Each structure stands twice: as structure tokens, then as C-alpha cells.
């Protein structure tokens, strides 16, 4: 027992895993000490989630060893034993859509009542309590498929943390959360850490690493690069370890030419309202302009974007380059020249079984050959171009997107949004789950594309994304509360997003 | 999970955040979906009554002319529903309906000395059940261990078992079973409280099924595995085992259905069960079981069976010519599907 105090909670040595020709992990080493919050960082496709799969017993490593508290990991089939060692919030959504939120929270551990049968009332109560503790405002009877991305993420976190496991892995838990929910999550993690729970935390938001982690491990190209206390690895050094050169990062968009006031509008929102979410909103995006839309999850910014691309019914008028777009019709929006990057890439971003090239060219299948035929050569060429432009880490244009790492799948969805040569891009949380360097290239693409005369509406609460924008509007409770030109003050913007110190316009 | 595109149709439903505190509504909707087929069933009953007002709505008519002929179908639908809910297919069930009683009966009364036959007559029931279960084990092995497509595996199994049955029964029919095998006699003619035993068996099987699916962790894991196997695995469910057990249970249920069919007819024909799987799928799907897995209820499936049974009966009463009845039946199934889709679709919103 005394030994357990000093023994690593989990120790992985020389873990290797290949998927066919792809080496997902060549040399994964990780040692997590009791009571610490350990960060695991690396670029998209570095092998982080693969290691998580191995550590939770879902993937069988080709080589290497995993030990929990000094003892070898249980056999793969023994799910119950694994669950006693480790709980996990996976990067890919792992809820069963048809089942209720309550059942998802307590899957395979539903409370039992009389005769050993499940007690639905106790399940309901337990779920209600759990959801309340996490301030997730959903009815536990809701089918999980009806949750928003944020809600789903919170449900998964709440479920994983309620197992009472002493070691919890969180694979990009914050990617889909807004600032307030992240703060609440971190409070909860600190609480649990005080009670002796150990965490492995994965994120592409480096400030978060410094905020809550004590030690950090960096993976690059499927290998372990370094493990060090966060205090010894400042931001620049951390980025260098992740990307492998000392070039550092550049601030995209700092040299954007100012957009003239009289720029002809490519996207006009005329009193556009989304019933139940926003009041009438007026907004224009000019030629060559990137307009950022910031706001909390409840601000209706995402719903507004979804209404613009025809996914939701709306009131008011949307015009693309002067011509009116039919409401509530995605094909009409596409035809009018809107390119769309959805927030929930796993639900409506890509077809997992189709290749990178097929996904990237899905919206332009009619332009890949004569008479409606798709010429594989042309498709692959386009696929390769997308891979290069967006820096997608993949085995090639023929790899199914379902096999890509989370961040790389996101880049393929971006490629699809750009494929149709849209007049205006509507991007919702474009850099979610994308590594620091790829963020740069992704935003770089938006920057370059808009310089050529397109417009972009960029819905995000990432300050880094918003910094690229020529103009940022802040939405609070379904209406535009403030508007800034480039060069806004960070603290002021954050306060406005939170709804504090809101300016009255 | 979902294979829809971002650019789905205009009907792609937005996901509204659900306001809290409407549990009663939800419950009611869920129930409604189960009972979506009740209005058409009532309509058929009324129509049947207008066709034959003197007998149609009497208990003896409904029990002995309508329901009794649906009992085997109902059990196979139950079996198929379980397999569909866990996200797989089992086409071989209809061949189990034939082969399991054929093998069991053959060992008891066949002209053979294989395996020490003739076996005592009481072995008919256990042998049939075990045989059906073994086929489930084999299906499960190929699907779970060798990761083959359930559709193809069970299709091949269907063909193979049909051939085996032809070899055993020899193109003829093993008949006059009721006199020779007491178990079969009982299955075919015993009544409890004036209701045939086979109906009691179906009621009991569905009751057990409803309790297991609704109130046990194993039953719920069927939905989880069918809905999202990765999530189920992550939650600690032994996905492979759940699937396997389901195949085995389905095989045994189909075998029992086969025995009941033999008992009702007093014989095992060379083509017993042949073609049944289409009606099985129709009833299950009309009853709200999704072919995609993870969705549907047994109560719904049962209403699907009752609906199809009534349709058949009413068609006969309406004096549709026997050579047309199949075409009409197919048409009616299509209409029923559309209606079921529409009613349940409305209930969902
Ligand atoms: N099931 C699979 N089949 C084939 N290749 C896979 C599979 N899962 C992962 N890979 C590949 O393994 C590599 C590592 O993926 P992994 O998901 O571990 O990356 P990651 O570090 O988690 O990235 P991200 O930050 O984007 O989530 C990627 O190149 C990916 O394409
Ligand atoms: Mg990952």
C-alpha cells in the first residue's frame, strides 16, 4: 500500500500501434504520477488518442506495455477490470443517440431496484442530480441525439467523472465548451484532484495546460519527445517540441489590408431572426472581409449561422451578392454561393467510410468530369491539393476520413466548404480540435481566400480565431450587443461575451 | 455514427435545445410510438366486422381463426426484433423454423439408427431448442469472431440449412406427428383457460422479452450495442458477447416457433418456414423496429404481427382470390409501412 503512493498510477512503455500502413504510435511512453494532472500534447495525428485507446483497453498495442500502479494491465476482454482502473472522456463522441441522457450517463451501471430489475425512477433521480451538479440544463429523458455539441460533451464529462475512478483521462474535453463551462470543469477537476484523483488531460489550448497541469508530455510523429514539469517548459519551448522546429508561430492576418467601408456586400442579413433563439439581426459581410461573431453558447450565434446556411427556419432576408436566398434550404444556400463548415463535424461534417478525396469533393461531384461522371483522377488531384493546402496528416487521398485523427478530419471538412468556390464562407468553430500549427494554416487559408474577394462569417469564441477577423460582432441573448474593428481589447471583448459590462447600442 | 451529410436535405431537422421539465410529454410520446398501429388495427377490426358481423368480433373467432395462425410468426418476429435491435441481421431464422423440428422429429420417429435413434419422444423439445441455439452459436461465431457481415453469413446459413432439411425430410413430409409424439400433441391442441397453449407461449415470451429489454442491464445493452457499439464498448459492455447471446436466443426462439408450427400442422414439411422471413421483416419494421439497429420495442413488433394477421384474415373474408392474395398482401404491407412511418414520424416530433 505504501508503495502505491509513489508508484505511477499508469506507466506506458514503448507502446506501438499501426493501422494497416499507418503508424499511429511508434514509441509511446507516458508516466503519470499519483495525484497530478498530466498534460499530453502534440500535433494532430501525433498519436495521442491512440495512446488513450491503449490506456483504456480499447486498442490492443502491437508492442509495449501498460502497467497500472505497478501491475500489468488486465486482459483486453475484461472491460470491468479496465473500468476500475480508468475512466475516460473520449475525443470521439461516445453516446448512444437513441438512448436517453440518463441512460447514457449510467450505461451498464443503471441503478437496480426490486427483483434486481432496473429502477427507472432511481435512474432518473440520479441523472437529474448529476446534471444539476454540472449545470447542464437538459431533461434526463431527452434522447442523446438531440443534444447540442456542448451539452453532449458536458454529459460525457459528467458521466466519466461520476464513476468514482481514481484515474481519469480527458481527451480534448474543452474543445466544444465555452469559457464558462470550461471554468466550471476546471473547478471540478481541482476539487477532485484535492481528493486524490489523477488526470491525464489532452488539449490543443496551451494556456489550459499551464492553468491546470503540473507536468506535460509531448508527442511528435508518433513518438515521445519530452516529459517535464510545466514550469520548465515555457510556451515557445512547448510549441517547438510539438512542431519540431524553432520557427515559432506567426499571427495570421496581422497584415490584412483594411476593408474599405464601401466594399460591396457579399452577404447581407436583413432582420434575420431564428425563432426561439435570436431576435432580428442585421449584418453585412463585405467583399474581402472576415466578420467574426462571438458570444456565449446561449447567445444564438451558432443558430444564426445555421439559419443562414438553411439548416434552420428563419425570418427576415439573407442576400448573397445581392440575390435573395430561399430560407430553410441547404441546397439553395449552396447554390447561392455559401460554403459551410458545421460545428458538429462528427454528426454532419463528413462521411466516415468515404475517402479524404471523396469527402473533400462531395459538394463539387458535378464538376469532376463530363456528363455527371466523376473522374477518379480529377477527384484525387483535388483531394491531394486539399491535403497540401490544409496540411492534413493522412496516408493519402484514399484513406477513409473515419480513420483520421480528430483535428485532421476537421481539416477535410474545411476543404469541402472551400471546394465549391463559394462567394462567402460560413465557418462555425473552425479551429476546434486543431493543433497550434494547423490552426495557423487553417486560418491562413481563410485569410488567403478572403483576400481574393470572398467574404467570411466566422462564428467562434476563440480569441485566436477572432483576431484574424476584420470586424467582430458580439452577440448576447440573441442580439448584437457590440461591434469592434480589428485591434479590440481582449479583456473588454471577453467581458462582453460573458454579458458583463455590455454596451448598449 | 451518423452518415448524413452536412448538406442533407432541407428537411434535415435542426436540433433545438430541449426545454427542461417536460418528462410527462416525452413518456407519452414514447408510448404513442409503440401504439402507432392500434388505430389501423381497430379499423381492420371494424372492417372485418362489417364483412362478417355474426362471428368476427367473437373471442373464438379472433383466437382460433386469427391469432392462432400468427403465433409462430410472432415468435420469429420476437427473435428477429432482438437481432435487429442489437444491430445485426438474421435471415437464417426461417430455415431454423424448418430444420430444428425436422431434426428433432427425425431423431424420434425417423427411419434411421444414426446417433442411437430412435430417441425417446420427450427429447423433441430440448433437441429442437438446442439445435436452434447451436445454429445461433455458429452464426455468432462467424459474425463476432470472424467479423463477417451478418447479412451474408445468415443468408448462406439459410441456404445451407434448407438443403440439409431437404436431405432429412427427403422432399416428402413427416406427418401424423400428433399421434406419435405427445409433446407435439400438447403443443398443438392443449388449451389453458380455453386459450391455445401456443398463444400463452407467445404472450409469455413477449412478456419476458419486454421485461428483459426494459428492465435489465443486459436488455438495455442490446440497445446500446445496436445504437453505437463503440460507445457501448467504452462504457464497459462486452459488445461481442451481447451480440452472440442474442443470436443464440434468436435461434432457440425460432426453433420453438418451428416446433409450434409442426404441432399446429401435425407434420414437418420439406419447405416448412420457407419464405417466412419476408413477413417477419415486414412485421418487425411495420412495428417500428429499425433495420439500422438500436431502435424499436417489442410491443411495437407485436402490434406489427397482429396487424399483418388481421390483414390476411380480412383479405380472405373479403374474398380476394387466392391467386391474387399474395400480390394484394404485398401491396397492403407497403401501405402499412407508409402508414406506420407517417404515424410514428408524427409522434416523434
Ligand atoms: N482506426 C484507424 N485506422 C487507421 N488509421 C488510424 C486509425 N486511428 C488513428 N489512425 C491514424 O493514426 C494517427 C494518430 O491518430 P490519433 O487519433 O492518435 O491522433 P491525435 O494525436 O489524437 O490527433 P488529434 O489531436 O487530431 O486528435 C493518425 O495519422 C490517424 O490517421
Ligand atoms: Mg485525438
Automatic annotation (TrEMBL), chain A:
Coiled coil: none annotated. One of its GO terms (molecular function) is ATP hydrolysis activity. CDD domains: ABC_Carb_Monos_I, ABC_Carb_Monos_II. It comes from the Bacteria. InterPro entries: AAA+_ATPase (IPR003593), ABC_carbohydrate_import_ATPase (IPR050107), ABC_transporter-like_ATP-bd (IPR003439), ABC_transporter-like_CS (IPR017871), P-loop_NTPase (IPR027417). Gene3D superfamilies: P-loop containing nucleotide triphosphate hydrolases. It holds the Pfam family ABC_tran. Keywords: ATP-binding, Nucleotide-binding, Repeat, Transport. Residues 10-246, 261-502 form the ABC transporter domain. This is Multidrug ABC transporter ATP-binding protein.
Automatic annotation (TrEMBL), chain B:
Keywords: Cell inner membrane, Cell membrane, Membrane, Transmembrane, Transmembrane helix, Transport. It comes from the Bacteria. InterPro entries: ABC_transp_permease. GO terms for molecular function: transmembrane transporter activity. Coiled coil: none annotated. Residues 1-23 are annotated as: Disordered. Pfam families: BPD_transp_2. One of its GO terms (cellular component) is plasma membrane. The keyword Membrane applies. The keyword Repeat does not apply. Residues 11-20 have a biased composition (Pro residues). The chain crosses the membrane at residues 32-49, 69-89, 96-117, 123-144, 151-172, 192-215, 242-261, 273-291, 298-318, 324-343. It is found in: Cell membrane. This is Autoinducer 2 import system permease protein LsrD. It is a multi-pass membrane protein. The lineage of its organism: Bacteria, Bacillati, Actinomycetota, Actinomycetes, Micromonosporales.
Amino acid at each position: 500500500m505504501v508503495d502505491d503512493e509513489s508508484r505511477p498510477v499508469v506507466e506506458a512503455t514503448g507502446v506501438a500501434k499501426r493501422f494497416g500502413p499507418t503508424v499511429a504510435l511508434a514509441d509511446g511512453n507516458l508516466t503519470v504520477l499519483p495525484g497530478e494532472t498530466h498534460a499530453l500534447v502534440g500535433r494532430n495525428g501525433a498519436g495521442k488518442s491512440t495512446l488513450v485507446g491503449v490506456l483504456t483497453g480499447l486498442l490492443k498495442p502491437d508492442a509495449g506495455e501498460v502497467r497500472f500502479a505497478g501491475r500489468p494491465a488486465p486482459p483486453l476482454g475484461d472491460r470491468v477490470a479496465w473500468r476500475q482502473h480508468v475512466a475516460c472522456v473520449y475525443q470521439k463522441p461516445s453516446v448512444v443517440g437513441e438512448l436517453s441522457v440518463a441512460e447514457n450517463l449510467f450505461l451498464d451501471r443503471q441503478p437496480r431496484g426490486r427483483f434486481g430489475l432496473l429502477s427507472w425512477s432511481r435512474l432518473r433521480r440520479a441523472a437529474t442530480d448529476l446534471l444539476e451538479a454540472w449545470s447542464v440544463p437538459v431533461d434526463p429523458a431527452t434522447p442523446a441525439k438531440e443534444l447540442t455539441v456542448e451539452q453532449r460533451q458536458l454529459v460525457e464529462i459528467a458521466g466519466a467523472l461520476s464513476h468514482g475512478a481514481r484515474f481519469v483521462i480527458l481527451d480534448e474535453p474543452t474543445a466544444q465548451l465555452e469559457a464558462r463551462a470550461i471554468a466550471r470543469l476546471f473547478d471540478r477537476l481541482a476539487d477532485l484532484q484535492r481528493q486524490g484523483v489523477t488526470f491525464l488531460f489532452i488539449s490543443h489550448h496551451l494556456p489550459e495546460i499551464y492553468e491546470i497541469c503540473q507536468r506535460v508530455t509531448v508527442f511528435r510523429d508518433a513518438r515521445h519527445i519530452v516529459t517535464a514539469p510545466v514550469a520548465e517548459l515555457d510556451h515557445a519551448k512547448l510549441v517547438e517540441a510539438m512542431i519540431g522546429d524553432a520557427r515559432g508561430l506567426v499571427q495570421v492576418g496581422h497584415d490584412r489590408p483594411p476593408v474599405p467601408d464601401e466594399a460591396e456586400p457579399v452577404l447581407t442579413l436583413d432582420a434575420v431572426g431564428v425563432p426561439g433563439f435570436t431576435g432580428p439581426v442585421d449584418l453585412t459581410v463585405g467583399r474581402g472581409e472576415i466578420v467574426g461573431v462571438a458570444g456565449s453558447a446561449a447567445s444564438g450565434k451558432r443558430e444564426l449561422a445555421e439559419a443562414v446556411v438553411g439548416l434552420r427556419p428563419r425570418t427576415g432576408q439573407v442576400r448573397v451578392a445581392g440575390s435573395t436566398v430561399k430560407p430553410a434550404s441547404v441546397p439553395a444556400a449552396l447554390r447561392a454561393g455559401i460554403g459551410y463548415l458545421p460545428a458538429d463535424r462528427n454528426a454532419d461534417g463528413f462521411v466516415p467510410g468515404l475517402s479524404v478525396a471523396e469527402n473533400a469533393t462531395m459538394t463539387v461531384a458535378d464538376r469532376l468530369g463530363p456528363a455527371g461522371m466523376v473522374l477518379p483522377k480529377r477527384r484525387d488531384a483535388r483531394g491531394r491539393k486539399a491535403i497540401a493546402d490544409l496540411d492534413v496528416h493522412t496516408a493519402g487521398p484514399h484513406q477513409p476520413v473515419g480513420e483520421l485523427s480528430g483535428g485532421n478530419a476537421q481539416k477535410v471538412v474545411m476543404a469541402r466548404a472551400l471546394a465549391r468556390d463559394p462567394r462567402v464562407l460560413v465557418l462555425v468553430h473552425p479551429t476546434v480540435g486543431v493543433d497550434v500549427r494547423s490552426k495557423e494554416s487553417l486560418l491562413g487559408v481563410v485569410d488567403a481566400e478572403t483576400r481574393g474577394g470572398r467574404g467570411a462569417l466566422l462564428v467562434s469564441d476563440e480569441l485566436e480565431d477572432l483576431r484574424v477577423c476584420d470586424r467582430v460582432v458580439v452577440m448576447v441573448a440573441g442580439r448584437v450587443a457590440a461591434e469592434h474593428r480589428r485591434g479590440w481589447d481582449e479583456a473588454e471583448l471577453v467581458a462582453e461575451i460573458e454579458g458583463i459590462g455590455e454596451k448598449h447600442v | 455514427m451518423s452518415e448524413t451529410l452536412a448538406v442533407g436535405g432541407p428537411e434535415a431537422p435542426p436540433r433545438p435545445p430541449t426545454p427542461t421539465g417536460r418528462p410527462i410529454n416525452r413518456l407519452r410520446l414514447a408510448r404513442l410510438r409503440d401504439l402507432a398501429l392500434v388505430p389501423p388495427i381497430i379499423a381492420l377490426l371494424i372492417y372485418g366486422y362489417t364483412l362478417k358481423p355474426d362471428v368476427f368480433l367473437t373471442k373464438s373467432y379472433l383466437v382460433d381463426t386469427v391469432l392462432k395462425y400468427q403465433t409462430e410468426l410472432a415468435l420469429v418476429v420476437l427473435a428477429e426484433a432482438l437481432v435487429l435491435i442489437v444491430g445485426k441481421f438474421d435471415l437464417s431464422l426461417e430455415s431454423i423454423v424448418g430444420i430444428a423440428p425436422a431434426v428433432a422429429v427425425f431423431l424420434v420417429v425417423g427411419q434411421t439408427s444414426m446417433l442411437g435413434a430412435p430417441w425417446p419422444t420427450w427429447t423433441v423439445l430440448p433437441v429442437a431448442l438446442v439445435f436452434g441455439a447451436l445454429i445461433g452459436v455458429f452464426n455468432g461465431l462467424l459474425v463476432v469472431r470472424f467479423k463477417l457481415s451478418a447479412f451474408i453469413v445468415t443468408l448462406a446459413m439459410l441456404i445451407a440449412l434448407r438443403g440439409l432439411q431437404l436431405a432429412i425430410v427427403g422432399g416428402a413430409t413427416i406427418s401424423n406427428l400428433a399421434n406419435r409424439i405427445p409433446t407435439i400433441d400438447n403443443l398443438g391442441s392443449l388449451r389453458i383457460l380455453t386459450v391455445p397453449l401456443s398463444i400463452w407461449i407467445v404472450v409469455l415470451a413477449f412478456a419476458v422479452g419486454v421485461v428483459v429489454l426494459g428492465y435489465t442491464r443486459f436488455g438495455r445493452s442490446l440497445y446500446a450495442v445496436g445504437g453505437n457499439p463503440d460507445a457501448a464498448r467504452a462504457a464497459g459492455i462486452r459488445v461481442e458477447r451481447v451480440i452472440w447471446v442474442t443470436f443464440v436466443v434468436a435461434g432457440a426462439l425460432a426453433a420453438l416457433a418451428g416446433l409450434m408450427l409442426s404441432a399446429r400442422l401435425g407434420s414437418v414439411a420439406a419447405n416448412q418456414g420457407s419464405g417466412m422471413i419476408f413477413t417477419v421483416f415486414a412485421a418487425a419494421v411495420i412495428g417500428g423496429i429499425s433495420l439500422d439497429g438500436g431502435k424499436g420495442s417489442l410491443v411495437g413488433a407485436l402490434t406489427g404481427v397482429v396487424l399483418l394477421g388481421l390483414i390476411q384474415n380480412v383479405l380472405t373474408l373479403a374474398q380476394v382470390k387466392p391467386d391474387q392474395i399474395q400480390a394484394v398482401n404485398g401491396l397492403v404491407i407497403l401501405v402499412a409501412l407508409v402508414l406506420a412511418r407517417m404515424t410514428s414520424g408524427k409522434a416523434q416530433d
